[in-house]
Design brief:
6-stranded antiparallel beta sheet, 1 helix
Length: 138
């Protein structure tokens, strides 16, 4: 299974940890992809229609990360997208964390292939079960 910090996030971290740029945590939105992105971005995100919208990760939404331990974090609760409505989303094969709610005006932070691809049909709800969305640094 492939996955990585995106080139943008790698440079963002280096600039803030070792450079002279102030560190501000970027906004985080989870997106689902029918064609996986790469470290440079790209891929094919589910179209912003049929009930699809990115999930915002922040305390106010109840979507937060666990405290880091052994170089890893994970989602602290079940995170569910709205149900597909009015049509299918396609077969989701990857996810990414991006810094904007709007497709096309964002930067990729992290991406990963899903362990199991899943067709999301009209009426289905895509969910990341608590603890199953892991980000690890090694």
């Amino acid at each position: 299974m492939a996955g990585s910090f995106n080139d943008y996030l790698e440079n963002f971290i280096l600039d803030r940890v070792f450079g002279s740029v102030a560190f501000v945590i970027p906004p985080q939105y989870i997106g689902l992809f029918t064609v996986a992105p790469t470290d440079a971005g790209g891929g094919t995100e589910v179209t912003a229609s049929n009930g699809y919208a990115r999930l915002q990760v922040e305390a106010a939404t109840g979507r937060t990360w666990t405290a880091a331990a052994a170089g890893a974090i994970s989602n602290s609760a079940d995170w569910s997208f709205a149900a597909a409505s009015g049509g299918n989303w396609g077969t989701v094969v990857a996810m990414a964390i991006l810094d904007d709610l709007t497709q096309g005006s964002d930067n990729y932070l992290v991406w990963a292939d899903l362990a199991v691809s899943k067709a999301i049909n009209d009426g289905d709800t895509a969910t990341f079960v608590s603890g199953n969305l892991d980000i690890t640094l090694s």
